[in-house]
Amino acid sequence: MKLGKWDIRIKSHYFAGLVVMVLFTAALFLTGRNNDVVLVEEIARNVDRKTGPSCNDSVFRCNLFSGKWVFDGVSNTLYEEKKCSFMTNEFACEKYGRKEFKYQKWRWQPHQCDLPRFNGSSFMEKIRGKRVVFVGDSLIRNQWISMLCMIESSLHPSSSKAVVQIDNLFVFQSIEYNATIEFYWSPLLVESNCDDPYSHRIKDRTVRIKSIEKHARHWTDADILIFNSFMWWLEPNMTILWGSFGSSDAIYKRVETNLRLYEMALNTWSEWLEININRTKTKLFFMSLSPYHFQGESLNEGHCYNVTEPIMKEDYWGISTDIDMMRTAESTIQKLEKRGLKAEYLNITHLSDYRRDAHTSIYRKFGDLSDDQLSNPKSYSDCVHWCLPGVPDVWNQIFYSYIINSS
User: Which residues are catalytic?
Assistant: First the structure.
């Protein structure tokens, strides 16, 4: 009788083990399928590392990057274009003739929680006595202007100063909170011949791929740093410089722009951070690539001109969204974290990719346009930058939720 019971136990354990083996084998099969599809799904859903702050309690964690756009004709935008004294002509779509404003009425809705509404007073209280610096190209400038517009209505008029420029640095100061919110122009992060904030439209881009100190010395004492770098690496060719600009013994080499160059620049950036950043003081953020919409899923569709609705296809990815560049940026940040320096990777790519309706298109200030261009608006439409109010406000709401929930 005892032997019979022992026999039954062995059989049940054997059966349980068999079930585990079957499930494990199935999992291996599924994870081995089409690596590119798996990667897209991982980035799109941000299941693992890229979760947002707590939404309801300390246990439940909400992924702020996974959700959908919901039309909300009731909620007011956080500011009005005309009333923002920091608005620039690159992002002022209403000023330059856009007549429909539905693009301002779409709200980002995460699947499992609500995105915290931006509160300018709470944000300024959180950064009291601190220095916040946005570093990168015109897209992070787009985000910086959005931030200034979002907080302006929360500040007493006498408590803030206008933006002051010091070389590549643009500084907004709040006297009341003894805080600054700054933008530093450095489109490639490393030193280049495109570093002039105004005269940077240079066809032959030259970079000192291992040199960053010229820029980075301006960030050293910041309390919060937000970086981006993507769009300026898309030129087909670049010149790499060893030595100094104008030096007689400098070495120049024209190369094809590829993923390795981007990786080298990010490595230079991360090595500087590792050595120079005060780990007990400075919070680091890196914005994932901001998608552009000259094409969609195919070369024949997806342009932003004359578009007034978001793309509603679930898990849409435009062909211009470079998965490899995203992977490279995230890998750099993961390596930093393994070396003891944490940087938050804010993956705003997927949520922004739906919004081809929200680009500035033809509704911004341009230079002189030819008759041929004027007859074909698609030829000069800006499908890179975003109207304000608009998509960058959501990026800032997500950034705000990290800051407001930080210790």
Answer: 138, 382, 385
